[in-house]
Amino acid sequence: MNIAVLIKQVPVSDNVSVNPETHALIRSSSEGMINPADRNAIEAAIVLKEQTEGKTVVFTMGPPNAEKALREAMAIGCDESCLITDRCFGGGDTIATAKVIAKGIEKYGKFDLIIGGAMSSDGATGQVGAMAAEYLGIPHISEISSLTFDSSESGSITAEKRYQGMQVKIKASLPALVTVNFGCNEPRMATLRSTRAAKTKPLVTYTNAELCMAKEDAGLSGSPTVVTDSFEPEHARKAEMLSGSPDEMAAKLKELIDSEKGKE
Amino acid sequence: MPEGICIFAENYNGNLDNSVPELVTAAHVIKAATGEKIEAIVSSDQCRELSDQLVKLGVEEIYAVKTDHDPAFQDDSLSRVYAEMIRRIEPSAVLIPATPAGRSIFSRTAAILGCGMTADCTELLVAKRDDGSFYIKQNKPSFGDNVFVTIEMKPGVYPQMMTIRPGVFAPYENSGSSDAKVTYFDDIVMPASGVMVIETVPAAAATGSILGADTVVVGGRGAAAEGNMELLKQFADKIGAAVGCTRPIADTGVIPFEHQIGQTGATIHPRICISLGVSGAIQHTEGIKDTKLFVAVNTDENAPIYNVADYGINADMKEVLEAYMKL
Questions:
Q1: So what's the pLDDT on residue B250?
Q2: CATH class for domain B5-184?
Q3: Quick check: B288 and B273 in contact, CB under 8 A?
Q4: Torsion A108-A182-B110-A160 (CA) sign
Q5: Chain A 108-167, residues with CB within 8 Å of chain B CB atoms
Q6: Is A219 helix (H, G, I), strand (E, B) or coil?
Q7: For the domain with range A3-222, which CATH number is right: 2.40.30.30, 3.40.50.970, 3.40.50.620, 3.40.50.880?
Q8: pTM for the full predicted model
Q9: Full DSSP string of B107-131
Q10: CB A132 within 8 A of CB A101
Q11: Shortest CA distance to B110 belongs to which of B96, B99, B100?
């Protein structure tokens, strides 16, 4: 089974502030990391690949330094990688981003399954996976908690997902796209050795010279939505602040809890 | 000109999702400025039951597509049904709950219609363009709720499609008329899906302890420090509380992700909530704004959590909890 994995490089910290002129986010750190849920996507892909043979190809769209995330994914165990990067892809909303990613996957080759994390830790829209599935014309199951493949039913994949207090088992015919919840498996780690080996694994770069997107389909100009303002939440304190030594504050806290519990 | 505020009537097993009455309230926010009608779209094998529930909510027009089987999770096909309904109704806005089903179905619908979709709005403001047309400024938290952004559709993009964060708008209580017109689009037939449900069983109650808990202790980023989680759990045991956490902690895997509160996690309604090392903000507090006692412990005296807590303790949680355990 050939599997594409979609990952996103996200800021390490969400401790950000806003440039009041441009509404751009000022990140306290330029360091990026693989989005936590995407690590679960990588793990799910590697497990399936080991079971079925084939290859795993990890994709990301981002600035050139997103190569770091791809190298890490290959160090963890993905076989190949594809960096989709072009200034004209930048600033896109979920629609514009999903279109470019779908185009990149199609250009790379045929995949039986595409796996992504359910949500990013920064934008957290949870939309791009399902949108990419639409552009690829394949079914999808989102926000799943487990994934299994039965070789006697090689035309489909089975996922589990929680919904309204129910555990639901769902089958999708392949090719399909799934997004996995954060924490649904135990992602393996890269080792020193695998990190070294990842340096020579294949990395293909697609710019718009390769993807040939119409300008009105990508990036800012391809986005139906636009960010027009940004602001930090107002600080209007409501809490009554307790003071004193830790012992005194702990005693006061106990008093508050006991008093409220006493009202049962 | 597109007109009407359309809500997605998310449903399961013939019942409207709890988010639907909240969407009606959000729709009224828009209606107050634009005077447009509030419409609902629903597709299910139990349209009649669902329409009855929508009528009671004071929705003015209901559009339904009846399916010959339960279409739950067949989002590749459902998204097409809703896209076609929206093309016919031509609403100016479509409101969707920011729930797993809302995101999954309408991400595809937005792609089909090419209209885009904003995610997880917590505030809607109606503004007017120079040509007299109304548009919606959609405010949403970003980056762990430390920043809010305003998102709009580019002029001429319709419908304005957005998901609304559950628990932000109060459920609508209809005291007015309830005589909505129900229109069935009998010629819209759900296409075959590549997705099939093979089994549905009640989920193990892993989240039960926190969902129904009367007293909850919530750990945030500040609880990730060495030894703090252990202390937090001991404290929770001592006061008989369930343990929850915010996203940064859930992301570390210290507390099972089912116990994440807010945003993508569980919505809880405890009577007593003690937060430890949680700096902000809405993603965590939406679920607990009705608490009777909410004490926040944080080392940052400007932490936004103090905007919603009843009492604040500006101190290292470790020192306070160690002192508490000795009491």
A1: 60
A2: alpha beta
A3: yes
A4: positive
A5: 118-119, 121-131, 133-135, 138-143, 158, 161-167
A6: coil
A7: 3.40.50.620
A8: 0.84
A9: HHHHHHHT---EEEE-EEEEEE-TT
A10: yes
A11: B96
B5-184 and B208-325 have identical folds: yes
Which residues from chain B sit within 8 angstroms of residue A131, using beta carbons?
A: 107-108, 110-111
| Closest CB from B101, B280, B320 relative to A250 | B320
Structure tokens at B313: 């303790």
Tens-digit pLDDT profile for residues B136-171: 999 988 766 667 899 999 999 999 999 998 878 889
Task: Say if the Cβ atoms of B323 and A246 lie within 8 Å.
Answer: yes
What's the rounded Cα separation, in Å, for the pair B62 and B153? Answer: 25
Interchain proximity B296–A121, CB inside 8 Å? no
Q: How far apart are CA B189 and CA B325, in angstroms?
A: 63
Q: d(Cα A38, Cα B51) in Å, to the nearest integer?
A: 39
Query: What is the model's pLDDT at position B256?
Result: 60
Residues A226, B292: C-beta atoms closer than 8 Å: no
Largest CA distance in chain B: 71
Q: What value, to the nearest 5°, has the Cα angle with vertex A59 and ends A56 and A61?
A: 175
What is the per-residue pLDDT for B229?
A: 84
Closest residue on chain A to B151 (Cα): A227
Is residue A24 within 8 angstroms of chain B, CB to CB?
no
| CA closest to A186 among chain B residues | B253
Question: Among A35, A156, A170, A243, which would you mutate to test the B interface (most chain B Cβ atoms within 10 Å of its Cβ)?
Answer: A170
The phi, psi pair for A72, rounded to 5°, reads -65, -40
Domain boundaries, chain B: 5-184, 208-325
Q: What is the pLDDT of residues A22-69, one digit of tens each?
A: 666 665 555 788 998 999 999 999 999 999 989 999 999 999 999 999
B320 close to A (CB below 8 A): yes
Fold of B208-325: Rossmann fold (3.40.50)
The length of chain A, given as a count of residues: 264
Order across the sheet with A225-231: list the strands: A225-231, B147-153, B134-142, B123-128
Contact B198 A169 (CB under 8 A): yes
Please state the length of chain B. 327
CB pair distance less than 8 Å for B264 and A124 = yes
Which residues of chain A make contact with B272, given a CB cutoff of 8 A? Answer: 257, 260-261
Are β-strands A3-6 and A56-61 bridged in parallel, bridged antiparallel, or unpaired? parallel
In degrees and rounded to multiples of 5, residue A136 shows phi and psi of -85, -10
Strands of B37-103 (E only): list them. Answer: 38-44, 61-66, 93-97
List the structure tokens of B80. 């097409």
Q: Domain segments of chain A: what residues?
A: 3-222
